[in-house]
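Job type: complex structure
Entries:
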Amino acid sequence: MEQQPVAVKLVREAGAGVYTEITVVEAPASASAGSLVQVRVSIKNKTSSTIGIMVGGALEYGVSPWPTIFFPNYWANFPAGQSYYFDGTFTMPAYAVVIHAYSYYYGSDSSWHFDDEKTKSVGLSQVEEAQFQSLSVSYAKV
Amino acid sequence: MVETKELKQKKDWLVPTAVVLGGAGIAAGLYFYMKKPSGVDPGDKVRARFTFDYLGSGGNYILLVRFGYHRISGLFEWFDPEEGLDNYIRSVFLASPDPYELDVDCILPDGTPARTYDAEASILTPYMQPGQDWLVRVFKDKAITVRED
């Protein structure tokens, strides 16, 4: 990761994924209360040049302000047309949550600008997971 | 009488020569066979055998196998699938609580890069997104080695 984000020359007000696109938000379908949940947000640079892109995330489940998702590495300079992913974590509350993932681009005014959003739901852990015990898998040529 | 002796001498050479050449051929074949590294080739079929105890009361599930790169970052395990090796799926119906042994056959596509791949095996429900959600999953590092053609 470079030290300084590369700025986008602001030609017009961006929004709804003009410069970036959140392609995938990965997270388990359910998690148990108190467990650490992994989140991966994949973002694509839709422009024809390298730009600085930042990720953000928050949890919607009935509290205010929305708790944030921790991303240890939260920005990177993306080459044109390239995708990159950011890994983050949060602690599962005792409620089902909706993950809101956000992407931002770095503007020529030296500020980060919101650009795209994608959501994903994570339910509270069901007993279904516990129905599978002692899973092991072997691999052999046939 | 002289001609017969020469013929007999020729026949005496024939058998040992054939034995030596045959042995050399077998040895050469064995050498080249042994020299080929173990592993699988593009186009080969790899069978992933799922073994587990099912405690539920019945339902439809998806078995998913992906090959790629398993890594541990911080407290977590991540899996980065290799394109083309990331969608081996089998739909199953588990009728009752029992031990199960189920196979997912994975045909490696032509052009699969030669290298060693880790594997991720997961079980999910039909409404889950393959590769993004799972009920349970296990990893096997260095599960298969794809050879050079």
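Summary: Chain B touches chain A through 37 residues (CB under 8 Å). Residues 1-36 of chain B form one domain.
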